[in-house]
Amino acid sequence: MRFTALLSVAVPAVAELLRPNGISLSLNGTNYFLSSSIQETLPTNLIPSTIATNSLAFVPVTIVGNNAAQDDLPKLFSSWAQKDDVWQPAFSELVVLLKSPGCKSTTTNFIAGIRSVVSCWGKAPEIPSGPYFLDPYRGSLHQVYRLYDDFSGSFLESILQSPDGTFQTLPAHAPGSSSLTIGVPSRLYFTRTKDKPLAGVRVGVKDLYDLKGVKSSRGNRAWYNLYPAANKTAPAIQNLIDAGAVIVGTQKLSQFANGENPTADWVSYLAPFNPRGDGYQGPSSSSSGAGASIASYPWLDLAVGSDTGGSIRGPAGVSGVFGNRPTHGLVSLDHVMPLSPKMDTAGFLTRDPEIWGAAQAAMYKENYTTFSEKKTQYPRTIYTAGFPGNDTTQGAILHQFANDLADLLATNITEYDISQHWASTGPKSVRDTPLTEFLNLTYAALITKEQIALVKEPFFRDYAAAHDGRLPYVDPAPSVRWAWGESQPDSILDDAIRNKTVFMNWFNQKVLPKDKDPHRCSSSILLHSESTGSFGRRDVYRDPPTVPFGWTLSRISIFSEAPDSVYPIGEVPYSSDITNHEESLPVTVDIMVAKGCDGLIPRLAQELVGQGILKIPKTGGSILGGEVLF
């Protein structure tokens, strides 16, 4: 009696602790994860008698909705095999048609070599079409995630997005070499609409945006272990989720979004692997995981990065994908770790300019000037700045792109020297001071002074309180920068803000002003390039990190707050001393338009793709495709 009483108490307690969180299995050599949540329950009369209902095995099932006709299934399945990487013919062994006119339960062959049992569910609820696994004992249908190996080391956390807006860690692992496993849902479950323009778009998120229920590292192991999971999702990411996007994981960044080189600088975590060329080029930073993943994985559509000093444009350049630093202030950066609020922006990396435009419209909402439904008139002037000579391979690619763009827009190209323009038209009180001197300390002062106050000081204080006064480990790059910032007077921040404002007002009035015609928006386009296929091995021990002083063309957008985006336009060969073969690295161009005219850039990219001037970059060792080398 005593044992029975104890057991009756213990069983509910154990049941409370044992909560199923999904199951991993393999079908024809492809690894899948079954969500623990039940999509729907299949009536017992629809489960064929050949399936044992007392079995613990799961059965692959295809659900076909939208009143599809039975005769159309061979064509439908053929299209599914092309558009979806989760569904496979083995799921057609049991096909359940929902509300299909004239449906007859039968056994037939839709696909050669596979005998399909067809069941008709006339009064079915709304269930997304696609692959499922059936628990025949309970009749429960479970959505399917295909499991992929994160071989480029781009992700920090693999997550599942719940319908209630929270996230959980993916409790599954596929074979891989010291790497995470990422789960992606079937594309067939989603239909893009005006209200859900990103339905089913798979997204990786830089690990400085909060996701409800997910712990963050900010690129630092001590941070990850010190702080609890976030209690709210960052508004910038929530905007994407509301538009139908599916978050599949958080992605690596250089520590606290400071610039770092692989090998010695990345200490807390290993830098992601850039797949281009010989596979051992640096991924740039700080949105390193974002760039490497978009260049590596055809199953990933979009990556959310941040750009303060080039953290999207750098990785996009060396990865050969599209990327944008938007007009400053287009979306709230609440629940996002800051580097410098005066310069921080949220943007994207992707291979597809159509998704690029839709994602920007979804994230930036009413602050975004979209041209998707307007007759677009492009700027009448094209400036080029800092292009290599036309006698170099890189220069020839860049100049050819500029000429093709000018032909498309029926305009001319003007070589532009911003230093000379500043000297002749800058504010009289400062025009005699070269930009290299006037803005030399501006970026360094802003990122150090602001991040020390907003990140370092509370982090060190919280860590000390939790660890008996100890200090946390911080990578060399942020350590050097913070030390310099702490050595400077507070007045340096005021000087930096003032100089940035002076430059911003001049640039937006004299160089890239808005056009009076709202259909054109920007008076001019400015082209420059920061990534010209240069060789940058990840295994080189470089000089220790330093404070980022100085002035380059990439900082125009940082200080002016105007958008600056990256287009992949070609690649150049180089002789790899790793593979002892000729490999290829991307060449990209940066394109700037007036502040607030962001929508022009993806729209123009779409037209350039349509004209054959730009090509959609592929994943792999080259922007044309090819194997990834290890």
TrEMBL record:
Superkingdom: Eukaryota
Ranges in coiled-coil conformation: none
Pfam families membership: Amidase
Keyword set, alphabetical order: Signal
Domain annotation Amidase: ranges: 193-352
UniProt-listed InterPro entries: Amidase_dom (IPR023631), AS_sf (IPR036928)
Signal peptide (UniProt feature, chain positions): 1-15
Protein name: Amidase domain-containing protein
